Amino acid sequence: MPSLPRPGPRGLSPRRNRRPLPQIRVPVARAIVDCAVYIDGRRQPGRVSYTEGLARVRAAGKGFVWVGLHAPDDAQMADVGATFGLHELVVEDAVHAHQRPKLEVYDDTQFLVLRTVQYVEHETMAKASEVVETGEIMVFAGPDFVLTVRHGEHTELSELRRHLETHPDRLALGPTAVLHAVADKVVDSYLAVTDRMDADVAAIEEVVFGRQGHSLDIDPVYLLRREVLELRRAVTPLATPLQSLTASGNPLVPKEIRRQFRDVADHLTTVIDRVLEYDELLTSLLQAAAAKVGIQQSTDMRKISAWVAIAAVPTMVAGIYGMNFDHMPELHQEWGYPVVLACLVALCAALFVVFRRSHWL
């Protein structure tokens, strides 16, 4: 027979007396997707860590290191922030997502937060549970480094990095060239999403105004408006950071990069105009749908009232003749029953015709 475990102090079981296990520290390399050194716009051969890459760049006195991270935890981001001299506030923001689009400058380091969006495929709006999926990209651009921190599964930048590496003249402009490329990619995704949402808005408009006489499901209208509001919260606040990046008084952005940021700002203006148009249109559609639902409910109540009135006639007659009295008119006549039935049918048919002509049925 196995022996029982001995009780701990004060009668507590050994399991309760155990100390909590220390959390396992995950290496920073687990969060790093890619790390490379770029000198004169060209990627240097070999694989380097972020500390080795920064040391190589500063030893050479030119170029920059680009480190890409995906969803780092507090300890991982703290190590990276200490290596690159980042402020503790932006380090905390990089770990905890759900930030508003913004641009913050700490000495010679720019911190840009971008909200990313992706269109979610669906057959129809009636079957959709989500239209827009959001994520987040944060970019730290210093004199000799770029850090891109991603949150979300659709925020990959590997294709963008490969594209930039085929244009060393752009990478030769420095870390702000990467900052511009990431912002341009995100804003282009906004345009792609709004193009796809045109069909959804048109489908909702057709449902609201094109199905006369049929029941209307108002839930898809609420769903699409909620998704448009989420897209609006991701897109609209980015206008202010882009204005700061295109300002002529910004010494951290070269003149050529500022010109390219103006093109990004123009595209963002187009997106904002579309989103605001969607918002206004869906608000009108929501009001129209609510009015149509109210009319449908009123029509249904008229139909119910008409059928109740028709059913009241035989109910009343049946109630009268159901009373147990001996002396009632025509109670013992052989032709009384068929006459009553004929009268009931005639009265019900007359009421049906009246309600039909009044468009209650």
TrEMBL record:
Designated name of the protein: Magnesium transporter
Highest taxon in the source lineage: Bacteria
Primary location group: membrane
TM region positions: 304-323, 335-355
Catalysed reactions listed for this entry: Mg(2+)(in) = Mg(2+)(out)
Alphabetically ordered keywords of this record: Cell membrane, Ion transport, Magnesium, Membrane, Transmembrane, Transmembrane helix, Transport
Cell compartment(s), UniProt: Cell membrane
Region feature Disordered, mapped onto this chain: 1-20
Membrane topology type: Multi-pass membrane protein
Molecular function via GO: cobalt ion binding; cobalt ion transmembrane transporter activity; magnesium ion binding; magnesium ion transmembrane transporter activity
Family that this chain belongs to: Belongs to the CorA metal ion transporter (MIT) (TC 1.A.35) family.
Cellular component, GO annotation: plasma membrane
Originating species: Gordonia lacunae
Stored InterPro entries: CorA_cytoplasmic_dom, CorA_TM1_TM2, MgTranspt_CorA/ZnTranspt_ZntB
